[in-house]
UniProtKB/TrEMBL annotation, chains A, B:
InterPro entries registered for this protein in UniProt: D-Glu_cyclase (IPR009906), Putative_hydro-lyase (IPR038021), UPF0317 (IPR016938)
PANTHER family referenced in this protein's UniProt entry, alphabetically: D-GLUTAMATE CYCLASE, MITOCHONDRIAL (PTHR32022:SF10)
Family indicated by similarity: Belongs to the D-glutamate cyclase family.
Protein name in UniProt: Putative hydro-lyase
Pfam families, alphabetized: D-Glu_cyclase
Keywords for the protein's UniProt record, in alphabetical order: Lyase
Lineage: Bacteria, Bacillati, Cyanobacteriota, Cyanophyceae, Nostocales
Organism this protein belongs to: Desmonostoc muscorum LEGE 12446
Annotated GO MF terms: lyase activity
UniProt keyword annotation of Hydrolase present: no
């Protein structure tokens, strides 16, 4: 049976067997979960360059060989076509389908990018006694488009998308210290305090995910978010792109500590 | 006149005017110097992926747009075709020419990669009171091919090339601490102690650079080295590749501190 201490390979097998179709937060706690982006090889350089130029939003953990669905570095033996609980298929930037198995869409010219995710630093925050509000409230993290532009490439550009966690003022320095170590999982915050300075009008109306309670005296703290890649794909409108469905991540064999300096 | 406190832009201008053709260690101290690799766009994804998979050897600082010689991120306004003191031209992996101006070789399909260099962490070592033997002895750093294989891509593979600095045993922990912060300039060592464990037979016979004195009681400490990219190019034999000449680096507008976490 599935439980919080299941191994990554057990969870991937359940996905592969069609027996798991839920969001992955809390599963295989302590192991690195990853965002997935699949693109044709013709766009692979430009996308890898976009990630290289914007490493806080898009920290690359693994890139598969052309046509090969196995992420050999972070999960040897896994198959990214079947081992995530749920996927989204985009044609020319438009979401056309959600599915639990992308083998029907697979092609010999596709390349998969696995990208670090905030779950890794949230575990570290919780282990350090820092509150993570959306976990307390059992919600998805609130995410917002900002007025900060990512460094573009010829083909990919995007506003920086951030996630927000409210913290008591006396927890902020510790949160910066704890999360900055996880430089392959978005690392330190990109902004602390006034949302309007980065173009966010209303914290209670996130562009993605759920609003969470911000208590009196708490300060909103913002981290770069992997959803930035999906905005970049929406703007570039490639003929085919495949991603995980929000919250339905790939669970790798790496321990969170691997993502730190 | 050129001196140790010259600005990067002044040194680049001297190169551009054909007035500087010397190695760059010690110039514009405190500013980031970079390895240069120029390749056709057709190989750009595979090379960027090789660097992404081997970040300790090949930490990417900037990648120019196809056909554009300006490294917009680390030195806006610079021209990598003229602003280094000396270059090497390779055809099918063979060195065919050294030159001080690569404009005659430039093509609209070329991409330039700027890669972090050990000068940044050596400055930090010296500032921390750690000895850097080849600097004391006014030599080039000794470099060795190891029996450690880089993570390959379909096209690029290479043994890891390392540089070596001998240290008194009671300096080693501090050297790890100081250099590990510079994760975009090779970061922490890859090996401490017995050279034979990583396939090095004789410290006094480096594969590149100069041998340095290793005193009684000193321990050899090895860091990943950017020359790894040149070995990878030698093995891949691209129809055209251009690099800096050893020690003749590109001087960027970034301060060393930019390369730290």
């Amino acid at each position: 049976m599935l439980n919080f201490s299941s191994l990554p390979s057990e969870i991937r097998q359940l996905c592969r067997d069609g027996k798991l179709d839920t969001p992955t937060p809390g599963l295989a706690l302590g192991f690195v979960q990853a965002n997935l982006v699949v693109l044709p090889y013709s766009l692979a350089f430009e996308f890898l360059l976009f990630c290289q130029r914007n490493p806080k939003s898009c920290p690359i953990l693994d890139v598969t060989e052309i046509g090969d669905p196995e992420p050999k570095i972070i999960a040897p033996g896994a198959d990214i076509r079947t081992d995530l609980p749920r996927y989204r298929i985009f044609r020319h930037g438009e979401l056309i389908e959600e599915t639990t198995d992308i083998r029907p869409f697979w092609r010999s010219d596709l390349v998969a990018f696995l990208i670090g995710c905030s779950f890794s630093f949230e575990n570290a925050m919780l282990n350090s006694g820092l509150p993570v509000r959306h976990v307390e409230e059992q919600k998805n993290v609130p995410m917002y488009k900002t007025n900060i532009e990512c460094i573009p490439t010829r083909i990919f550009s995007s506003p920086l998308v951030v996630s927000m966690r409210p913290l008591p003022a006396n927890n902020i320095v510790r949160a910066v210290e704890v999360t900055s170590r996880y430089y392959k999982a978005h690392g330190s915050p990109v902004h602390i305090g006034n949302p309007e300075e980065i173009g966010i009008r209303d914290l209670q109306k996130p562009d993605y995910g759920d609003a969470v309670t911000v208590r009196d005296g708490e300060v909103p703290v913002f981290w770069a978010c992997g959803v930035t890649t999906q905005t970049a794909i929406f703007q570039a409108k490639p003929e085919l792109a495949i991603t995980h469905s929000p919250g339905h991540m790939f669970i790798s064999d790496l321990k969170d500590e691997y993502l730190t300096l």
